[in-house]
Amino acid sequence: MTTDKPENIIKPTMDTLEQIRGYPSGRYGAEAKAIKDMQKLGYTAHDIVSCYTDMKKRPFWSDKALSLMSVKGQIGEWKVNLKPVDDRSSYLNQNLPPRRGA
Length: 102
Known about the structure:
Layout: H1 10-21, H2 28-40, H3 45-57, H4 59-62, H5 68-81, H6 90-93
């Protein structure tokens, strides 16, 4: 019996967010766990980064640090309302695994 392990999206997601933020995560372990939790719920690296960038555009988050723990709390609502970031943005596609069905 073979069990397929899900693709590890932690490193590519964290690398992409570091590029967007301009600095490494100060809470790598906690943010990595948030990514793992979101992946278990069916969200992709693209979903996570898109939700992060969309949240950062909002006035409340624009001048604050945004952790992936906060993204984890909002990604379901974000996904339901389908508020994606422009898919042509280069940082979304550089190191992330392809979206399902792409």
